Amino acid sequence: MRNSSQETPRRRVTARMRELRFDAGALSLNLVATVGRRPDTPIERLGNVERLQAWCRGVGTALDDGEDPAEVLASVHELRDAAYEIAAAAVYARRPSAEAVELLNRVALVEPPVTQLRLTPTGVEAAEAGRQLSGAGLRSLVARDLIAIMSDEGLRGCLRACGSESCRMIYLDSAHGKPRKWCSMQRCGNSAKAAQHRLRAADPGR
Questions:
Q1: Is 146 exposed, middle or buried (0-12, 13-18, 19+ CB in 10 A)?
Q2: What is the 8-class DSSP label of residue 164?
Q3: pLDDT reported for residue 2
Q4: CA angle, 35 then 84 then 176, to 5°
Q5: CB–CB of 59/27 below 8 Å?
Q6: Domain 11-202 adopts which CATH fold?
Q7: Which residues contact 8 (CB under 8 A, 6 or more apart)?
Q8: How many Å apart are CA 182 and CA 45, to the nearest integer?
Q9: Distance CA 192, CA 181 (A)
Q10: How much is the pTM?
Q11: In sequence order, what are the beta bridge partners of 62?
Q12: Which long-range contacts (CB under 8 A, 24 or more apart) does 173-176 make?
């Protein structure tokens, strides 16, 4: 039996770590980011209907009034797991599971609603913000977004995992030139720099 004193200490989970992320660079990756610290110590950020509704607002949509949010949440969780499996496989150069690919393809078969136009004082504009979707339509948008990334060699090659061991968020690196190491310089990048500074201050000979 393993001695409890030898167990790896549990990392502290702060309120910021439970925040929804909308900076992964793509709709599908924003959904994947609703679980933090994959794969070792996952943090659930989409654990109830209220969080699902907040996530929908964050990506510029909402569920149809006739939808059962609890059922949609369960199906979104299932899609999220498949999306992570496929995106992580690209990042870590491995083959994704057949079940994840089959689920993504099946979900994407649903036709999402087309973009509508609305009149403005000077002409027309796309009326996407705040549009209501069925659960199937929402999942289809997410699945099609990831399929578009995986089908484009350039985009697929820009998938990264954050260099912070306490994050590992998968994101789409849109920066030109040297690949980004962190999902966000303001979050993980600054934290890593601060940790390095503390280490040097504690041991000037390093």
A1: buried
A2: -
A3: 47
A4: 95
A5: yes
A6: Jann2411-like fold (1.10.3300)
A7: none
A8: 20
A9: 11
A10: 0.82
A11: 132
A12: 173/25, 174/25
How far apart, in whole angstroms, are the C-alpha atoms of residue 166 and residue 172? 18
CA gap 206, 202 in Å, rounded: 9
Give me the tens of pLDDT residue by residue for the chain, a chain 206 residues long. Answer: 445 445 544 567 777 788 999 999 999 999 999 999 988 889 999 999 999 999 999 999 999 999 999 999 999 999 999 999 999 999 999 999 999 999 999 999 998 877 788 899 999 988 764 578 999 999 999 999 999 999 999 999 999 999 998 899 999 998 676 778 889 877 786 655 555 544 555 565 65
Quote the tokens at residue 47.
Answer: 């654990």
C-alpha–C-alpha distance, residues 110 and 43, integer Å: 30
Q: Give domain limits for the chain.
A: 11-202
* Contact call for residues 12 and 43 (beta carbons, < 8 A): no
